[in-house]
Amino acid sequence: MYDNFVEALDQLTEREAKRLLLRLYTETAAAGDMPDGEKRVISLLNHMFSDIQQLQTGQPLTQQDLNQVHIVCGESAAGSLRVALSGLEVRQKRVIALSSDLSIGPLSHLDDQSGMAEREAWIQETFTEFSEEGEHPISESVKAIRAIPDHIPIIIWTSDNACEQTGLCFILHLLRNP
After folding, report:
1. What backbone torsions phi and psi does residue 129 show, to the nearest 5 degrees?
2. Residue limits of the DUF1835 domain (predicted)?
3. pLDDT tens, residue by residue, 67-117
4. First CA to last CA distance, the chain
5. Angle 55-60-62 from CA coordinates, rounded to 5°
6. Where are the beta strands (DSSP E) in 130-178?
7. Span 113-149, pLDDT tens digits
8. Strand, coil or helix: 149
9. How many Å apart are CA 71 and CA 81, to the nearest integer?
10. Residue 107: phi, psi to the nearest 5?
11. Residue 73, CB half-sphere, CA atoms under 13 Å: how many?
């Protein structure tokens, strides 16, 4: 087992090794203040060892390991990302678009129906030419983000504008462990 692990470690790039070490450090530091911190660190180490061994030549990652979700603010950016990712055949790609511009309007309780209804009413009152039919514009995005399993890697694409930074905060709010 030791030889297999050493062989798998040798296959890591310098960047991958540094990221693993940094993750281990940050998780260990955070676990120090938790009552079950030791169990959490041991679990993390076991997962890391397992992941590293799966990278060994001749042991391909399972389809579940290859899944990932991309989250982006705006339908246009989501379409562009889908096109860019379409050439990559290695991974299953899923793109979720947060379609509402959160840089304007009420943001309170957007993760429930009352907050969405309040925001929609404000938008319709403020922008009289706006008419949205069907469900609240962000309700599908909220459902999709909340449905992401814990073990699936998530990549959030943002820039430094107000819309995407507010969207990032909302996405992180949805992804937190309650």
Report:
1. -80, -10
2. 69-177
3. 688 999 988 888 888 887 776 654 456 899 998 889 888 999 988 889 988
4. 38
5. 105
6. 154-157
7. 899 889 888 888 887 765 554 445 688 889 889 888 8
8. coil
9. 10
10. -120, -5
11. 20
Please give the angle made by the CA atoms of 106, 110 and 111, to the nearest 5 degrees: 170
In this prediction, residues 169-176 reach a mean pLDDT of 92
- The structure tokens 């260990």 sit at 28
Give residue 174's pLDDT.
92
> What tokens were used for 95?
């793109």
d(CA 133, CA 88): 35
Question: What distance lies between CA 60 and its chain's CA centroid?
Answer: 23
Strand stretches in 34-123, DSSP E: 68-73, 93-98
pTM of the model: 0.59
What is the C-alpha to C-alpha distance for residues 140 and 130, in angstroms, rounded to an integer? Answer: 19
